[in-house]
Each structure stands twice: as structure tokens, then as C-alpha cells.
TrEMBL record, chain A:
Keyword presence, Transmembrane: yes
Keywords in alphabetical order: Cell membrane, Membrane, Transmembrane, Transmembrane helix, Transport
Record-stated family: Belongs to the binding-protein-dependent transport system permease family.
Pfam families, per database record: BPD_transp_1
Domain of life: Bacteria
Ranges that cross the membrane: 21-42, 88-113, 125-144, 156-174, 273-295, 325-351
GO cellular component: plasma membrane
Gene3D superfamilies documented for this protein: MetI-like
Organism of provenance: Pontibacter flavimaris
Name of the featured protein: ABC transmembrane type-1 domain-containing protein
Compartments where located: Cell membrane
Length: 361, 375, 575
């Protein structure tokens, strides 16, 4: 770890590109954090209905306090561009982080265990196989229904109590089976790799907007839904990458050595595999983030419910469709978007160099 | 090798069946169903064209005629019936069934269900007909897949060729300036959302106010006399230029980046050093030795390219008015035309599975070390 | 370097070929179509584009003439004669003598009877037409005149006259050459039809008729209209050509029966931005529904105006806000009036329609002057008035929100606005309401939902407030299914739950016993007053259509009725 930190420091000193990019990102992050405290003349969602489609830097725009102009509803472009950065950081970043975490976790597991690596005694497999559906039904499905009918907490509590009872019963039964029936002690190999691969294939084959529509039938279109869905559809890419890398790393001599001295799988993955994975994952992360920053512009094009109040660069950009002459709606947020993405790529480019030089050691 | 490929395909069949079932059931979870809006909520107008009752009757008749009244699956899991809207009232009169909702109830439907019909239809080669047009699903997909396929194939070939050439150029020592220029600009292109890119190309290159180089939309006009092959092709290229450009620009940055980094890695490898030591000129070192090894990761990229593009071409097809599979998909989802919807998703799945299998085989073919492992 | 040179030469050669735009035949009219028709079957068509095309291929007995905005006899010789009996009404028509099918055989009453059978029989793909013709019980042929017949209809409603003529007549010789439906009587096609479902001949006909051929095959889509389908290129375009010698050319005194352009081609362009660009490129001749902002832009461009004429007819489509009166918090009409004062209709018109709309007080279009109630003023944004009304309705402002005790529970006044996702004008209206209500202290949540979800939410009365549009026409004003409280049950079309005893009485009168236009005007004006007062179904504005038509065409018959122009009437101007 110290080695990486040192190379980053030397990068900072020697490469001005890295320095500018990092500074820009830090500034943007700072801006996103302190933005609500800044004295902006207009809130991003304030509709100045007297001044729709103001072009920027004109006399009218300056006089009304919209230096960058307004969109079709008179929303101030300056405020929207700045708050869009906030959304980019507060939504896109966590989404991508979540997707990367899930993807790396599942991908490394699939790559490490393969189809025969993870062995579990039969009784525990049964315990999980029965417990998860029960958890879903009593822990998720019923309470969701109750909240839809406004039934109050009594029924939800009842179902939770039932769930707890069932889980305890299941645990008791499985320990009993383990103790008295040797058959249930037999270890079976779980096809982790196959399961993860099939899951990624399915998820990437079903178009995202179909998934959104299916999910929208349970939950109304809202920010949490959007976040959930994006995480849900973005992790497979990272998972595939992590799995491929894990397969490669597993063959490397140093890893085999670490394995042979009896390290536990968790430690093996954490200490020996993950640092080696970081480079490619980082590239995937930045590319994913870049795509994510403007994704909702495409989503709203397909008539998919992105909350209309969500301030984002994508929303402003896609409003060009109602008036193709309003170039400023694309240029300013699009410029910010490109700059941010460029900064991200520059950072990841140099960082991946750091990682690749380390792994070749 | 062929045996391996065949085995891979055979093994894919159960997966396909499982996923197909999943997609079939999942698609029915979309809110609303086909015809609901059409028959029950006709364009509400100033005068009643028909009574609500007769419309409902017609809707039921329609569902019966098309078999949509049947239960979905072999067993159904009815939605939890609402126990009692007023729990206070329930406490006064405790009814024995008020907690029955805590146990899931299953009903057995037998073989007369929609899934059974659909599956047995597929096994006999009948993918049923579209609810919207009444045409056989396969025919509809066949009609629109051609356009998408040629577009995607052309986009892939152009993108790969460009990516290869660009990375070879960038890998040369004296082309440092090109790399400095090209990589950031590729990143910038990558950051432009596809929607904006497609619209931008339209506004810039097919607009009399700016540059009018290409036709705006479609795939050609109606001409009464038949064209020769060359003329038809010329027309086709002319109309396909913009969508092709959009697809290439969208995919170029990522692929170029990947090719370039793997090319760079193989330039540092021992065999390249040997080749260089032999005194080969730089461009021959790159083309003969480094490139061949750098192409391996390309297999994965290409295998990902095709399936992902099907959903990626939705935007391009809508904006440039190309009747392709993406547009068919979006239309059938919005109308809840389940037979078409499920068939398209299954098709994408098949393409994906085949592409992955081919990629594995290609790896084995290219790298004997992997071949041994597969055998 | 040599390679680069070759590449450059190729590129410029390609560019050169691209720049040469294909020559266009001037007598061809090119029209944009947003969605490809699913089928052109005159019985089961499902969208407006298909209707526009079928109108060129087939005829109904009566139809609206876009030149005059009046109902005119098309296939019929005159308007029907109406005889009202106790429980039935008789409409007697006579078909034009000249009218003939593509093969030259005359259109007769037998064809009308055949059409009715197709529309009413079981097993056939006719479910969208069937409910509409349920009221026609029987058809009586005139023994002396093969073109004369009488519809026997149950009951009476003012719009029946229009409805008896409002379906396409099919050629029996082409659709049923084996006479499979001959043995079935129209009178037997009412009520329970389960016996007929086993009829072998009907089954044979159904197998044929339900095939997609009957909605796609140019050989089968041959009606009495002046055009035939020439070519249907999947997902790209449909072209129609004029029949060589069409009977309509020989009829006298019929300005509305026309087939003038040699060829009409409908281009499928789903995206509006693309369509506008295609129009600017002169690739289209006609484009309707141009977005307001783009329309303003086009108006400024002289080079464009030299080639295209822009029209803004008053459309018969209006946007309204519906408030769910069943929700206890909206039960008081003063609360609803307060919300109506927060809609900011004038801003919505300015911002999202660029003033291409007319505010309205009720569902009657302001352009229909004798029915429109001019004594009412459309709701305008007025926060003081809204506050006053809220206070009067018993709401108390505390902690920045409005609260009230309803059924013993303290409730806060909040509004959840739903609209069809992707529609900009609704989204704008919702945002404006949100901002206006926020000034008064009512939190508003804005939700764009997918259209079928919106439909099911409206049907199940699971909403606070929605924005929707309604299309209409200037002929019939029977709002009973939309506004009568009998239709307010779950599943009925009266989503808002509007209805007072008086409005119900008025709606009943209008739909049955009104005799004179004066009385109808009086009733409709009173209805507008009640609706204005109740503020459950708040009509906001009537839009103006925005159409561009190439200047080489004259006689476009611009109208507020869909599709806003009559392409069959376009004549080439002589230079």
C-alpha cells in the first residue's frame, strides 16, 4: 500500500496532467459539498416563467440574472450546471461504487472458486435453500404488500415474528440432521462460477428499459428505484472482468505459493488477489462512471420515468429535443460533463499505470 | 474443436430453457396487458362510441380468442388477498381465516396454461403470432433483424479496423503527438451521450442550415423502377452513413483504448524485444509480432460487441428511423406484445451464448495452453 | 501517405454522390407518420395513422369533410332519414349509384350487410369495432332498390346518426368469395352467440379473415376509395397510388370526394426531431404536430417559408387536470378550486405551448362559439385567492403546511401529480403546479408514469391529480360517459368522480331528449358553469395544431379535426 501511495505522490509531482485532473475533481467535489451554502440567485428547479429559452450572455440574460441563459421552463442554466455536478457525485458515484463492489465480490468469488471450489455440507445448503425464499416472502413480499394497503405495523410484525421462528426452526432442524444423519454431512460443490455467469448473461440480455418497467410495477419511479436499477444492471460488466482477472491471477506463481502455505480464501483474495485486480477494475469503473453521468438523458428519451425534479446534466441536455436551436442547453452541461469525464480518465490512466507497474514487479 | 463447440451448445440448451422461462414470467409482470388500453380505454371522446360493458365483453372475448385468459404457469401463486381493510373491525369479530394470508397458497393449473402452450409451440417450431399485427413472430423478427444485422456488422468491422489502425499508429515511437491528441479526444467523444451524439450528427451533417451531406432518415425511398444492385447498394450506403457513424463513434473510444493497452503490453513482452533485437523495422515488429498477441483480448470484446449492440441500437434506430430489432423491441414492450418481446430477448440471449461459446473456442484455437485445459 | 490519399479521394467521391439528392416527382405527396400501422384492416386498425391511410382506401357511409368541418355523405347519397319508434330508431340510407369497387362491380346494400356481419360475428378479429356497432340490431334491405337499406337500432342517442355511418364498408366479393357468411343473418348476431362459435363456415371464414393478410395484402385492401396500396416497405414507408379511373371523379357536386395526388407516400419517422430536420431538408411535404418551439423557429426562416406554408388550425383536443374527488382531502370543492387557481394555466400555455393554445373554461372548444360559455373566466394563477379558499375549506396553516382534521385524523394537504412519462407539456404543467403550490405551502410530488400504469391508476382511482388530454370534434357533445356519476364506478371513464344531481340531469337530457340547438346550448353552458364551480375536471386549454405543407400544393383543407389536412384533396399549383 505504501508503495502505491508513494508512486501517486511522485505522479503528482511529475505529471501536470494528473495534477490538473485531480485538482479539478477535488474542486468539483468541494463545490458539490458546499453548493447549498453558495448565494446563487436561483434554485435549480425554480421556474422563471417570464424568461424561457434565454440565450446566454445577452443583455436580457444578464439583466434577469441568468448569465448562462435558461431552458424552456425558465430554469437557470448556471444553477442547473452546478447542481448537476452535485447529482453526478452524489448519485453516479455511489451507484458506480455499489455496482463495482457487487461486481468485484461476485466476480472474484466466481473466479476463485470456479465450479468445484466451494464445498458446503448438504445440511447447510438445504438450510439456505429453504431460508432464502422464506426470507423473501415474509421479510420482503408480505411487508411490502402491507405497506401498500396501509395495514399498520401489526401484520408486518406478525410476519417478521413468523420469519424469525421459521429461521430458528430451520437452523435447529439442520443442526439436528447434521448430528444424527451422516448423509447430510456430505459436502457438495456449489457451481458458483456457472451461477454467476448465467446471471450476468441474463441481466445483460434483458434490455435495461424492460427491467425498469418491470420494477416500476412494484415501486413508483423515484430516485431509489433508479439507483437500485442502475446498480442492478451495471454490476455484470465488472463481474465478468473481475472473474477473468481472477482466473488469470489464480494461475500466477506467487498466488499459488500463497495458497500452498495455507492462507484462508478470504485472506487470499483480500491480500493477494485484490491489489492485482485494481488496475483493470479502475478502468472499468471510470468508463462506467463516464457513461453513467449522462445516462438519464437517454432514459428519458425512451419515456422511462426518471423523476422530473432530479437536477442533472442529462436532464438539461435532453431538453434540447424540444428546441434544437437552443445550443447552450448542450454546450454548458455537456462541456462540464466532458471535462469531468476527461479528468476521470486522466486520473485512471495514470493510476492504472501505477498498478500495472506494481503488478509487474 | 467441433466436438467441444457442439458440447458447449448442447449444454447451453437447459440454460436457455431456464432463462426463457424466467423471461416469459418476468415479462408478464409488466403493468397492464395487451389490448387493455385498446379495448377498455379507447381514445376517450365527446360521445360514447360504445358502452363500457360491451367493451369489457369484447375484451374478454378477445383474450379468450387468443388464449390470454389462461393461467400463466403450471401453478399459480395468487396475490395475497387483503386480509381486512379495517383491522379494528376484524378484532371485534375474529374470523378464522383472517390470518390465512400468512401461508402462501398454490393452485395447480394443469397443462392448459399459457406457458405450456408457448413452450410446446416453440418445441414444434411455432413461435406464435404477434398480438399487434397478427403476423408470425419469427417473420416479424426476420424482417427487422436484417437491417440491424448489417448495420451492426458494418459498425463492428469499421470500428475494429479503425481501432486497430489507430492503436498501431499510436504505438509507434514517433507518433507520440498523435497519442497525446487522440486519447483525450476519444475520451471526450466517449463522454457524449449517445442521444446527443446521434442528434448532433443529424443537426450538423443533414441540415440545410449547416451541412447537407446525408439524407436525414430511413433506408431509401420508393422508386417505381427497380434499381441495379450497385445503385441499390449506393443508396443503402448513403442512408446508412449517419447511423453507422454514430455507432462507430460511440464504440470506438472503448475498443481503441483496450486494443492500444494490450498492444502496449505485448510490445514490452520478451518476444517483441527479441524481434526488435533481430533488427526488424518498427512497423514490422508491431504488425508481425506484437499485434498477433494483442489480438487475443479482442476476442472477448467482439463477443461482447454484438449482443450489447442490440439494445444499444434502440436509440440509433429510433432517431434515424431504421426499422430494426431495437425499435421492434421498444414497440412491443410499450404495447405489451409479449410473444414478440419474449422472442427478441430470447434471441439476444442465444446470440450472447453463441458468442461466448465461440469466443471460448477461438481462445482455445489461438492459445494451445487453453486448449489442453478444455479437452 | 499514398494510402491516405486514396482514402481521401474515396471519401470525397462518396460525399459527392451523397450531395446529389434524389430527384422527386412533384405529384407525389410525402407525409410523415409517427408509428407504422400495425394493420390496415378496416375492421381492426388501431392507430390514427392507420385510420388516415384506410380513409384513402375505403369509404364509410358518412364522414367529416375537413374542408367545411361538417359531416357529409361519402358512400351514402344523402344523410339518412331518421324514424324514431318506441324502442328502436330506423336510419335509412341509399348508396351512391356511381359507387363501385375496384373490379367495377357496384357497391350495394349486400356489402353493408356483409360488413355488419363481420363486425358482429364471434371468432373474428373485430373486437375494437364490435362494441361500437352493438346498437345496430338489424339491417332491412329494400326489395326494389339494391342500394337502399335501413338500420334498425335499439334506443336513441343524438350521436347515433353519426355512428351508423362511421365504419368502413367492405367489399363482399373480395373478402368472402365463397359466401361463407351468406347463411348468417345480422339479426341473429345479437346477444348470446355461443352456438355460432361451432359454425363450420364461420370458422373457415375466421381462419382466413384473422390472418395478417387481411391487414397487409395490397390485393385484399381494395375498397371504394380512390387509392390502392402500392407498396408497404416494412417499417419504412407505405405508398398509395391513385386508381386509374375512379368513380368519384365522375360524381357531381361532391367537393369532398377527392383523389387528386398521383401518389401519396407515408414515411415512418418515429422521432419528431428527425422529422423536423427531414422537413427542413425538403424530404417531406407535410408535417403535423411540430413542437411549438421548433415551429417558432421555422416561422423566422425565410428560405423555409418560401417553400412551405405554415398553418395553425384550432384543434379539437384539450388538456385537463383531473382531481380525485373520492380522496377525503379533495372532497371539498373549495380545496379543488384553490388547486385550480394554482395550475397557472396562462404560464403553461406560454411556456409549453409557446402561446399556441387557447385557455378554456370547460370541455367545449372556444371556437364553437354558440356553445362556449363566455361569462366564465378561465382560472388564473392567484395565490391569495387560493389561500382564501383553503381557509374557507377548513384548512389551517401550521408549520408551513396546511392541515385539517378529516374523520378524526389530522391530515396534511399534499398533492401527488401523475402524468404520462415522456410528455413534455404535461411535465411542464406539473412542474409549474409544483412551483405555484409551493408558494402557498402545499407540497407537490411530481411523478411521470408509464402510460399503461397511468391508465390502470386512473381506472382504479389511485391518484390525487393527473394531467390528460381529450380529443373531440365539433359535431357531438355528449359527455355522459365522461362526466355522469353513473360512470364514476371503478373501471368507468369518469375518473375524477365529478357529478352533482343537476349535472347528471343535464347530461341525461343532452344524451336523449334535446331537440333544438338553443336548448342544447343552454344546457351545455350550465354544464360548463357546474364544472367550473366543482373544479374536479379542470379544462385547461385547447391546443392549436401546427402544420407545415409544401407550397406547391393548394387546397389542403386545413382543419382542426385529425389529421388536420385532407391529403386526397391536394392539388398541384401551376407555376
Amino acid at each position: 500500500m505504501r508503495h502505491i501511495w508513494q508512486s501517486i505522490k511522485s505522479l503528482w509531482r511529475s505529471k501536470w496532467g494528473f495534477k490538473t485532473a485531480l485538482l479539478y475533481l477535488a474542486l468539483l467535489l468541494l463545490l458539490a459539498l458546499v453548493l447549498p451554502l453558495l448565494p446563487l440567485p436561483y434554485a435549480p428547479n425554480y421556474l422563471d416563467l417570464r424568461h424561457p429559452f434565454l440565450s446566454p450572455f445577452t443583455a436580457a440574460a444578464m439583466a434577469s440574472g441568468h448569465p448562462l441563459g435558461t431552458d424552456g421552463l425558465g430554469r437557470d442554466l448556471l444553477a442547473n450546471v452546478l447542481y448537476g455536478a452535485r447529482t453526478a457525485f452524489l448519485i453516479s458515484l455511489p451507484v458506480m461504487l455499489g455496482a463495482t463492489l457487487i461486481g468485484v465480490a461476485l466476480g472474484t468469488m466466481a473466479g476463485y472458486f470456479g465450479n468445484g471450489g466451494l464445498k458446503q455440507p448438504l445440511h447447510r445448503v438445504m438450510c439456505w435453500a429453504l431460508g432464502v425464499p422464506a426470507l423473501l416472502y415474509y421479510g420482503l413480499y408480505l411487508p411490502l404488500n402491507f405497506s401498500k394497503w396501509d395495514l399498520g405495523y401489526r401484520h408486518a410484525m406478525l410476519s417478521m415474528v413468523l420469519l424469525l421462528g421459521l429461521l430458528i426452526l430451520l437452523w435447529l432442524v439442520s443442526t439436528g440432521l447434521k448430528r444424527w444423519f451422516p448423509y447430510w454431512r456430505k459436502a457438495v460443490a456449489l457451481p458458483v462460477d456457472k451461477a454467476v455467469m448465467r446471471l450476468t448473461e441474463t441481466l445483460t440480455s434483458i434490455p435495461r428499459f424492460v427491467l425498469i418497467l418491470v420494477l416500476a410495477s412494484f415501486i413508483p419511479p423515484s430516485l431509489p428505484l433508479l439507483v437500485l436499477l442502475l446498480v442492478f444492471t451495471l454490476w455484470p460488466a465488472t463481474a465478468r472482468l473481475a472473474r477473468a482477472e481472477m482466473l488469470r491471477i489464480r494461475q500466477l506463481p506467487y498466488f499459488e505459493a500463497a495458497q500452498s502455505i495455507g492462507n484462508r480464501p478470504a485472506r487470499l483474495i483480500w491480500r493477494h488477489a485484490l491489489p492485482n485486480l485494481a488496475g483493470p477494475v479502475l478502468i472499468a469503473f471510470t468508463f462506467g462512471l463516464g457513461g453513467l453521468l449522462a445516462l438519464e438523458s437517454s432514459l428519458s428519451f425512451l419515456n422511462i420515468g426518471v423523476p422530473a425534479t432530479l437536477v442533472s446534466w442529462g436532464r438539461t441536455i435532453s431538453s434540447i429535443r424540444s428546441n434544437t436551436a437552443a445550443w447552450w442547453l448542450v454546450v454548458f452541461p455537456g462541456g462540464m460533463l466532458s471535462l469531468t469525464v476527461l479528468a476521470l480518465y486522466t486520473c485512471s490512466y495514470y493510476l492504472s499505470q501505477v498498478f500495472s507497474s506494481k503488478s509487474s514487479l | 474443436m467441433v466436438v467441444y463447440l457442439l458440447r458447449r451448445m448442447l449444454l447451453a440448451i437447459p440454460t436457455l430453457w431456464l432463462l426463457g422461462t424466467l423471461v416469459f414470467l418476468l415479462s408478464r409482470m409488466l403493468p397492464g396487458s395487451f389490448g387493455e388500453e385498446r379495448f377498455l380505454n379507447p381514445e376517450a371522446s365527446f360521445y360514447s362510441q360504445s358502452s363500457q360493458g360491451s367493451r369489457e365483453a369484447a375484451f374478454i372475448e378477445y383474450r379468450q380468442r387468443t388464449g390470454q385468459h389462461l393461467p400463466l404457469f403450471y401453478f399459480s401463486f395468487p396475490p395475497v388477498s387483503q386480509p381486512n381493510p379495517h383491522p379494528e373491525a376484524a378484532e371485534e369479530q375474529p374470523s378464522p381465516s383472517s390470518y390465512s394470508y400468512l401461508l402462501p397458497q398454490f393452485t395447480w393449473n394443469g397443462t392448459s396454461n399459457q406457458y405450456h402452450r408457448w413452450l410446446s409451440g416453440i418445441l414444434t417450431g411455432d413461435f406464435s403470432t404477434s398480438y399487434r399485427t397478427g403476423q408470425p413472430v419469427l417473420e416479424m423478427i426476420w424482417n427487422s433483424i436484417g437491417n440491424t444485422f448489417w448495420l451492426l456488422l458494418a459498425a463492428m468491422v469499421v470500428t475494429l479496423a479503425l481501432a486497430l489502425e489507430l492503436s498501431i499508429l499510436m504505438a509507434k515511437k514517433r507518433m507520440q503527438w498523435l497519442r497525446r491528441l487522440l486519447l483525450p479526444s476519444l475520451f471526450v467523444v466517449d463522454s457524449i451521450p449517445m442521444l446527443v451524439l446521434a442528434l448532433l450528427l443529424l443537426v450538423l451533417l443533414a441540415n440545410p442550415d449547416f451541412l447537407q451531406l446525408f439524407p436525414v432518415y430511413g433506408m431509401g425511398y420508393y422508386v417505381s423502377e427497380s434499381l441495379s444492385i450497385w445503385q441499390a447498394m449506393g443508396q443503402r450506403i448513403q442512408f446508412m452513413a449517419l447511423p453507422l457513424l454514430a455507432l462507430v463513434l460511440v464504440n470506438l473510444p472503448y475498443i481503441t483504448n483496450q486494443v492500444y493497452s494490450s498492444l502496449k503490453a505485448s510490445l514490452q513482452a520478451a518476444y517483441t524485444r527479441t524481434a526488435r533485437a533481430k533488427g526488424l523495422p518498427e512497423h514490422l515488429v508491431i504488425r508481425r509480432h506484437a499485434l498477433r498477441n494483442a489480438l487475443l483480448p479482442l476476442i472477448t470484446i467482439v463477443s461482447d460487441f454484438f449482443p450489447a449492440l442490440v439494445s444499444g441500437s434502440i436509440l440509433v434506430e429510433t432517431i434515424y428511423a431504421i426499422p430494426g430489432i431495437g425499435r421492434l423491441l421498444i414497440e412491443s414492450v410499450l404495447a405489451r406484445d409479449y410473444p414478440v418481446l419474449v422472442a427478441i430477448i430470447l434471441l439476444v440471449l442465444v446470440v450472447r451464448i453463441v458468442a461466448y461459446a465461440l469466443a471460448d473456442t477461438a481462445y482455445a484455437w489461438a492459445d494451445p495452453r487453453i486448449k489442453r485445459k478444455l479437452a | 501517405m499514398r494510402k491516405i490519399n486514396v482514402a481521401l479521394t474515396c471519401f470525397f467521391l462518396l460525399l459527392f454522390t451523397f450531395c446529389s439528392q434524389p430527384e422527386r416527382a412533384p405529384e407525389e405527396v410525402r407525409v410523415r407518420m409517427a408509428v407504422e400501422p400495425e394493420t390496415l384492416s378496416p375492421v381492426s386498425y388501431s392507430n390514427a395513422g392507420a385510420l388516415q391511410i384506410i380513409n384513402l382506401l375505403f369509404h364509410s357511409l358518412l364522414s367529416a369533410d375537413l374542408g367545411t368541418n361538417e359531416i357529409m355523405p361519402y358512400l351514402a347519397k344523402d344523410m339518412p332519414t331518421v324514424v324514431r319508434n318506441d324502442s328502436t330508431t330506423l336510419f335509412t340510407y341509399e348508396i351512391r349509384e356511381e359507387a363501385e369497387w375496384t373490379n367495377g362491380s357496384p357497391v350495394t346494400a349486400e356489402d353493408v350487410a356483409f360488413t355488419l356481419k363481420v363486425a358482429k360475428a364471434p371468432l373474428l378479429n373485430n373486437e375494437s369495432l364490435k362494441p361500437q356497432l352493438e346498437f345496430i340490431q338489424d339491417i332491412r334491405m329494400d326489395a326494389a332498390n339494391p342500394r337502399r337499406f335501413t338500420f334498425v337500432c335499439s334506443g336513441y342517442a343524438p350521436e347515433m346518426e353519426l355512428l351508423t355511418g362511421d365504419f368502413f364498408i367492405l367489399p363482399a366479393y373480395l373478402y368472402d368469395p365463397e359466401n361463407l357468411l351468406q347463411h348468417i343473418e345480422v339479426a341473429n348476431l345479437n346477444g348470446d352467440l355461443s352456438e355460432l362459435e361451432n359454425d363450420e363456415k364461420l370458422k373457415a371464414f375466421a381462419a382466413k379473415f384473422n390472418s395478417p393478410d387481411y391487414g397487409r395484402n395490397p390485393k385484399l385492401l381494395q375498397g371504394s376509395g380512390g387509392y390502392t396500396l402500392e407498396n408497404w416497405e416494412n417499417g419504412q414507408y407505405l405508398t398509395l397510388t391513385r386508381k386509374k379511373d375512379w368513380w368519384g371523379n365522375n360524381t357531381s357536386n361532391t367537393q369532398h370526394l377527392t383523389a387528386i395526388p398521383q401518389r401519396v407516400s407515408f414515411q415512418v419517422i418515429p422521432d419528431m426531431t428527425t422529422a423536423v430536420l427531414a422537413l427542413k431538408n425538403r424530404q417531406l411535404d407535410v408535417l403535423e404536430g411540430i413542437p411549438a418551439a421548433e415551429f417558432e423557429q421555422l416561422k423566422q426562416q425565410d428560405s423555409f417559408l418560401k417553400d412551405y406554408a405554415l398553418h395553425t388550425p384550432d384543434a379539437y383536443e384539450f388538456t385537463y387536470a383531473g382531481i380525485n374527488t373520492r380522496r377525503p382531502k379533495f372532497a371539498d370543492k373549495r380545496t379543488r378550486q384553490a388547486i385550480a387557481h394554482l395550475l397557472g394555466i396562462e404560464s403553461v400555455i406560454k411556456v409549453s405551448q409557446q402561446n399556441y393554445a387557447t385557455p378554456t373554461v370547460g370541455p367545449i372548444p372556444p371556437s364553437v362559439t354558440d356553445f362556449y360559455n363566455t361569462s366564465l373566466r378561465p382560472y388564473t394563477f392567484d395565490p391569495e385567492k387560493a389561500t382564501e379558499l383553503l381557509k374557507a375549506a377548513g384548512w389551517v396553516k401550521e408549520n408551513g403546511g396546511w392541515h385539517k382534521h378529516i374523520n378524526g385524523k389530522k391530515e396534511q394537504l399534499t398533492i401527488e401529480v401523475i402524468y404520462r412519462a415522456g410528455s413534455h407539456s404535461y411535465e411542464n404543467a406539473a412542474s409549474i403546479l409544483q412551483q405555484n403550490a409551493d408558494q402557498v405551502g402545499i407540497p407537490v410530488q411530481v411523478l411521470g408514469v408509464e402510460s399503461s400504469l397511468l391508465a390502470s391508476k386512473s381506472r382504479q382511482h389511485d391518484f390525487d391529480l393527473f394531467f390528460r388530454s381529450l380529443g373531440g370534434n365539433p359535431f357531438a357533445f355528449n359527455f355522459k360517459p365522461l362526466l355522469h356519476s353513473n360512470y364514476a364506478k371503478e373501471g368507468g371513464l369518469n375518473y375524477t368522480g365529478f357529478g352533482t344531481p343537476e349535472s347528471d340531469r343535464i347530461l341525461d337530457r343532452i344524451s336523449s331528449t334535446v331537440t333544438s340547438r338553443e336548448e342544447q346550448a343552454r344546457l351545455l353552458k350550465r354544464l360548463q358553469e357546474i364544472m367550473y364551480e366543482e373544479a374536479a375536471f379542470i379544462s385547461m386549454y385547447y391546443t392549436k395544431e401546427r402544420v407545415a405543407i409544401h407550397r406547391r400544393f393548394a387546397n389542403a383543407k386545413i382543419s382542426g379535426l385529425k389529421p388536420n389536412y385532407d391529403v386526397s384533396a391536394f392539388t398541384l399549383k401551376e407555376d
